């Protein structure tokens, strides 16, 4: 082979090697670019997934708060409804209290007479009336002479000198009986206290 042909072969081999090297470099660069793109897509997918998870968590939190608020609302309205049922007839009971007081005064006066049949008849009516009111939730507030005065339970209408030292600051007399409907006092007992 001649030198020219030899140089030509070497150039052609050299060109082929350079071409192959360029192809290999291009392939490596393309692979790296694809990997970088895949990583970017993966990061975007991860960040999108994180965003979606965060949104779902926020929605769950909103739902739980709303559910808790609704449960509290149900409990509150249920409690209010029960309280309303307990005290629904409060106005009627308050209107009946003067009638009950009149019965009590009538019994005291009838006991002074000699007529036992009249006393028995009024006692039966009074008992029946009292039991009916009691069945509807009306109860007397227990107050006795000598009890300690409590402004939360009693209504003092006057103060008199105590008949004895042990009645100072205590209840001397009960002028008007107090009543409660369920746990609520609808009429406070009117009392006289000793000073």
From TrEMBL:
Q: Which UniProt keywords apply?
A: Chaperone, Cytoplasm, Stress response
Q: What Pfam family is a match, any one?
A: GrpE
Q: Where is this region: Disordered?
A: 1-55
Q: In which residue ranges is the amino acid composition biased (Basic and acidic residues)?
A: 1-38
UniProt keyword annotation of Chaperone present: yes
Q: What compartments host this protein?
A: Cytoplasm
What role does this protein play? Answer: Participates actively in the response to hyperosmotic and heat shock by preventing the aggregation of stress-denatured proteins, in association with DnaK and GrpE. It is the nucleotide exchange factor for DnaK and may function as a thermosensor. Unfolded proteins bind initially to DnaJ; upon interaction with the DnaJ-bound protein, DnaK hydrolyzes its bound ATP, resulting in the formation of a stable complex. GrpE releases ADP from DnaK; ATP binding to DnaK triggers the release of the substrate protein, thus completing the reaction cycle.
Relate the assembly described in the record: Homodimer.
Family per UniProt? Belongs to the GrpE family.
Q: Which HAMAP family match?
A: GrpE (MF_01151)
Protein name per Swiss-Prot or TrEMBL: Protein GrpE
């Amino acid at each position: 082979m001649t030198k020219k042909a030899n140089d030509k072969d070497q150039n052609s081999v050299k060109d082929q090697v350079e071409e192959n090297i360029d192809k290999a470099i291009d392939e490596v660069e393309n692979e790296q670019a694809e990997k970088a793109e895949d990583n970017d897509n993966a990061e975007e997918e991860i960040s999108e997934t994180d965003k979606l998870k965060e949104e779902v968590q926020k929605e769950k939190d909103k739902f739980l708060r709303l559910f808790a608020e609704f449960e509290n609302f149900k409990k509150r309205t249920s409690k209010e409804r029960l309280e309303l049922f307990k005290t629904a007839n409060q106005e009627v009971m308050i209107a009946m209290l003067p009638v009950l007081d009149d019965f009590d005064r009538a019994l005291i006066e009838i006991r002074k007479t000699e007529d036992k049949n009249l006393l028995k008849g009024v006692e039966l009516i009074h008992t029946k009336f009292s039991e009916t009111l009691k069945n509807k939730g009306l109860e007397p507030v227990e107050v006795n002479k000598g009890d300690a005065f409590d402004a939360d339970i009693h209504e003092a209408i006057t103060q008199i000198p105590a008949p004895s030292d042990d009645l100072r600051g205590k209840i001397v007399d009960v002028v008007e009986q107090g009543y409660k409907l369920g746990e609520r006092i609808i009429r406070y007992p009117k009392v006289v206290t000793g000073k």
